[in-house]
Amino acid sequence: MDKKKKELKELIEQFRENYDQYKIPTYKEAQVRNNYIDRFFKLLGWDIGNSKGLSELIKEVIIEDSIEINGRMKAPDYAFRIGTKRKFFVEAKTPSEKIKDNAKSAYQLREYAWNTPLPISILTNFEEFAVYDCRVKPNEKDRADNSRIKYYPYEEYLEKFDEIYAIFSRDAVLNGSLTQFVKSLKKAKGTIEVDKDFLIQIEKWRELLAKNIALNNHLSKYELNYAVQITIDRILFLRICEDRNIERYERLKDQASENNIYKKLLESFEKASKKYNSGIFDLENDEITTVIKIDDIILKKIILELYRPISPYNFSVMGVEILGNVYEQFLGKIISLTASGKAKIELKPEVKKAGGIYYTPQYIVEYIVENTVGKLLKGKTPKQIEKIRILDPACGSGSFLIGAYSYLLNYHLQYYLKNKPKNFKKFIFQEKENYWLLSTNLKKKILLNNIYGVDIDPQAVEVTKLGLLLKVLENESKESVTYQSTLLNQGILPDLHKNIRCGNSLVNQEFYKNIQLTLDDESVDRRINVFDWNDKIKGFGEILHHDGFDVIIGNPPYIQIQKLKEFYPEEIEFIQNYYETTKEKNVDIYVPFIEKSISTLLKSNGLFGFINPNRFFNSEYGENLRKFLKNYNIYHLVNFRHYFVFEKSDTYTCLLFVQKRKQGKNLQYKEIRNLYDTDNEKMLYLLNEAKANETNIIIDKIQPHFLERDNWYFMTESEEKIFKKITKYKKFSEYYNQNFQGLITGMDKVYILKLIEDKGKTKIFYSDALKKNVELESDIIFNIIGDGDIDKYSINKSDDYIIFPYQNSKLMNPVEIQKYTLIWNYLKLFEQKLRKRENGKFNNSFWYQFSRNQAIDKQRLIKILIPHVVKTTRVAFDDKGELFIKNVGVNGVTIDNKIKEDNRYFLAILNSNIASFFISKISIFLSGGFYATNKQFAGEIPIREIDFSNKSEKKKHDDIVNFVSTITELKKKLTKSKFSNERELYERQISALHKQINEILYDLYGIKTKKEKTIVEESLT
User: Fold this and answer.
1) Higher pLDDT residue, 738 or 243?
2) 169 with 231, same domain?
3) Which domain holds residue 93?
4) How far apart are CA 348 and CA 336, in angstroms?
5) What would the DSSP string read from start to end of 319-345?
6) pTM of the entire structure?
7) Is residue 570 part of a domain?
8) What tens digit of pLDDT does each residue of 742-783 get?
């Protein structure tokens, strides 16, 4: 660092000595870049001149010519990258320009970065160094200091170099410095990501168009949805072409200044059809949008909002991936018609049930593509690649197909560059020195040869096509388009109608064998949208005839089929009966997508890669899927455990990679642990580069014998040795004679009350249903506890009480309940919701879901109480049988009275480090780092049986029982204690006894070494 500071000092002194010369207007920007800015960033470790000789695709710094197009700069002067990922921009100015007050330059930089999107970028002329928070939506009227978060005059560079280096040096950026820096900033007013902002915008346009088209035309809801979607797509496509300098800038804006705007637009669409040969502009086969009427005022508003000064969008740099993110959310809503024919926008029912749409992060797309498409392409020539077919069977907005297509384009370019590019002039051309691009014809050929998709939503299909076509247009110019459309008389874009299909991937022609639809069922038929994969014209029969697709990738929907059944009864019934993985199981819909993809659509030895929930590893509903996958080679698995991949979603996921052949010897397994605070690039780096057992990631070779188990448990070799030691003993479920859930009530607000005052025969309660206090008789109201009231070895008595109208295990009849006047009057307030009379008797629905087998005598058994959700196992003993338990989250377990071991011995094991270790390996992961410990998992905990004829074992058993009794008493004292030093004493004693119990159990289970104990105890964190 001292050497760097010495060089910086010399640079500063040089600038100071020649200051007057640099301030004259004739001193050019190129000079300040070469003489100062380049040298400054070299001191920060950046390879400005590409001395490593990296290709244009991966070199660290991209340097642009300073050119303005349509009043916007073509690109900032520098883009700094890690790998292929841009991290920040730098825009250079001459020292004669005052950076501090230059509002135009600040706006241009911010606009470019916001649209890219990059959260931080820099404006500098070396004399000044200004850092901007580019998350704030830019406005041309903004002052120069708007969103400026750091400002360094050159005189302060030396003093602040450590600070600048810690944020902007290459090494710091590689290690996530920009992410941490951005997180340290307070969100300024106007902070919004470009995709979220643009989503708001196009949703407004959809609503305006939908209402206007519905008002002016007689269309069905299907025709209306199509008309609105395709109109937005067409306008947006042409507007993007303007910013990319393929179409004349402001052409659409000029049309919006005239009358009969839609007529003019149709003329533009007609020309675009001939020019691009794209299905988006296929007016010949469009009998809807060619005849509809749209008012000028609506179209004018939409078009003007796509241009300055209203629009902050720069479509020359807004990536296809960003548009995909926008459209993914956009497609979650649909236009419907009211009885009076008015349009309204509403969430699709399946989206509403699922809690929204979650766009796949780009690093997930890239990782799946790399480990499927990348694995398959390795070492292949472009000629060999021509026959490879890649499918996404639920393509949505097309993010995976665009990712695969981008990978193919880069692979081809790299292949030609490595093999003497001048020999491949038919396929690539040189735009400038050391900068080669693929020809348009080759890009079209790759797309048509290799990329295929299906989606049930016709709008999604059009959006996927749009995204892929915009990808083809990247790096095209007005000249290249004109050359192809005029001189070669061919459209620049391919027609994708054979590649991207609309249909229900899971429902085929066999659907009609059992269900006969009439003409009256047109809406049902449209909804079901049966897709015949084997049809050579309307499906992909030609590909399946040649064994199937080489690669299948994607992110299928996750919603439970039972939730979908309400809206899609016929197709769900078909799916449940047709697929092996769905029979007798309430699975998520992604499960049959996996079965269909691998069993029917994937080629022999083909590769499959999905992101989907990891609950199927060890849940009951995943049993059939686990059996199905045993037949194939799972070659790679990424388990995200407690890390949420999707923003605002509590679904834990995995990346599942399967090859269609018999299971091989090894599975590469990666497990993300405790990784909550990182960015996409860091995640991709970790997934690709991290070594075994780093802090946040575990990578190991896992033997495929995990497939032999009923549930899938993944462990390192050392963890598995311990696991085998403890699992040779009988399961906990073999020791108890009863396992029951707590009380079930359908209206907790009515039945569960908060104790305010105990008056003996009556008690004062707070009723959440009435939002006030009530006085009720005590006889049939009992204390009830939930999972949060249970600690290790102790129960924190709650203030919750439940009305429980049973006597001698039987539900009380109306005459009996009326004896409790206060309770009777209280329940009468809710009569409409609670009660029905049938021949003078209460219908069972009166007590809603109170089940008969949960009567008082069962509640009053002496029992071990087990919460359903824990971070580490915690159970307690109701030794008097006086506690009632809530259904939500607690099981009651009674040990068989023939068992010789004391109840407290079981309590010790269930609360031990060994039990926590075991649960952490077999259980379902839940939000916030919790594990499920309901009957399915707690019942599996291995119990070390005691040989009472062995004096040593008997003593260990008795010591444990005594220690548990002592802990129980100490916990009671701790609860009553009013002195902090006394409480600390009890806590230390309890902790010491915990350790002693764990040490005895380690010995009993054969866990002897310090290393083994450390591995067990790491499971607690």
Assistant:
1) 243
2) no
3) 2-184
4) 10
5) -HHHHHHHHHHHTTEEEEE-TTS-EEE
6) 0.85
7) no
8) 777 767 888 899 999 999 999 999 999 999 999 999 988 988
